[in-house]
Structures are given as C-alpha cells and as structure tokens.
Design brief:
Blueprint lengths: L2 H12 L3 E7 L5 E6 L7 H19 L5 E4 L4 H16 L4 E10 L5 E5 L7 E8 L4 H13 L3 E10 L11 H9 L3 E6 H8 L3 E2 L2 E2 L3 H14 L4
Parallel strand pairs: 3-4, 3-6, 6-7, 7-8
Antiparallel strand pairs: 1-2, 4-5, 9-10
Helix pairs in contact: 2-3
C-alpha cells in the first residue's frame, strides 16, 4: 500500500472522522464503521485533506483536467482545498467549481459557485463518500447542462465497498458504468481494515477481533459482489 494511503488512514482515525462501533446509516443499515468528513474542521486538517485528494487524483486520473467540481454542500470545501493543494504539490492551476442547491437570481447569478464551466473543460468531481450515487445523479445533469464538458473522473476519500442501488456492484462502480467516467477512492475499506487490524493507535487497538468480526459480517451481508 502506498505511503500516502497509510498516512491518510491514520489521519482519518486521528481526526475522529472514521469511527468504529455500531452506527445506523441513512439507508437503515447497521454499520460497524462510520465516516464523517464534517469532522475535518481545522486549517491544518483541511490542508492535509486537500493534499491527499490531490495526490490521489494525480495518481489515478493524471493532470489533464481544468476544474475540480464539488457537489453542494460537503463538496464545496473539498473542491477549494483540492485546487489549492494541486497548485502547491504539482504546480498546476486548476479552477474550483461547486453548485448551489438553488439558483441565485441576483448578483453572482446562476446555479454555480466559483468558476463558470465552459466548452472543452475537463472536470474532476470530488466527494467525501459515495454510498448510492445520488449526489452524482443530481449534479451530473447540472454541470453537463452548463457547457460541453468532459468528466475525467470522480474521486472520493473512502470506498465503503458495499452494494449500491443495483444490488451487486459498489456505488462507485455503478457510477462508472452509468456515466462512463472512471471512479476512484483515496482508500478502500479493505485497505483500512488490513492496515488497522490489531494495530494500536492512540493507546488503543482500533480494529480488534470483535470489530473485525463485525466488519466481516457486514460485508457478508452488504458487500459488493463484483
């Protein structure tokens, strides 16, 4: 596993973004782990998060893109910090763009925040996590209606690796199949489990035998089949 992935897993745990226990998800599923990207709140945390996104985008999609797009609301800061980090790490100027939930009819009018989209723009979408693909379902028609753009990929921080709406593939794979652009994650839940199992962080074992058994049982029931 690449060093930046190991660092990112530790970073999620240190920031209390990735938790283990018993959590009820929006879907009603009982999950032994939960990720809350809203827990990244300090300047140093946001700086590091942007760097991890930038490194993962660089590795998975390359540099041939012009815009980082983050769907409202959590994607707004993600698009900003990723654009900043890309400039600092790779010396490439990319623009940030996000959408509003409702179009603004005065001042800076329209549905978009940040950069406008123009014909020929190559766009990378950033999200915290994709469990159903719903946000892409909502925002993809919005951004493609603004201009003749090409989506170069979708990057999320964690691939939960559980079945999406189709019932067999994970949500990221479903998005890739439906829209025809590549998808990737900084880390997968399999990588997280492998790296943290029986490892001590902050004076405690993060994934002990009981939590590992709960994760295994969860994926027996909800894990993507393909």
């Amino acid at each position: 596993m690449e060093a930046y992935k190991q660092e990112f897993i530790d970073f999620m745990v240190e920031s209390d973004v990735l938790k283990f226990g018993e959590f009820t998800l929006k879907s009603g599923r009982k999950s032994p782990f939960f990720m809350n990207a809203g827990a990244y709140v300090t300047g140093s945390q946001l700086k590091r998060l942007g760097e991890y996104y930038a490194k993962a985008i660089h590795e998975n999609f390359g540099d041939d893109f012009d815009v980082v797009f983050g769907p409202a609301y959590k994607g707004i800061p993600l698009s900003v910090i990723t654009a900043i980090a890309y400039s600092e790490l790779f010396g490439k100027q990319v623009r940030y763009c996000s959408n509003r939930k409702e179009a603004k009819d005065h001042g800076d009018t329209g549905i978009l925040l940040g950069s406008k989209l123009k014909d020929g723009d190559r766009v990378v979408i950033v999200e915290d996590v994709t469990t159903s693909g719903k946000s892409i379902e909502e925002t993809y028609p919005i951004i493609t209606a603004q201009a003749d753009i090409e989506v170069k990929g979708l990057m999320v921080s964690l691939n939960r690796m559980e079945v999406g709406k189709g019932g067999s593939k994970c949500a990221l794979d479903e998005v890739a199949d439906l829209y025809g652009f590549p998808t990737a994650a900084i880390v997968t839940m399999a990588e997280v489990t492998e790296y943290l199992y029986n490892q001590e962080r902050g004076g405690r074992v993060v994934i002990d035998d009981n939590i590992k058994a709960a994760i295994d049982a969860y994926y027996q029931q909800y894990g993507a089949k393909e």
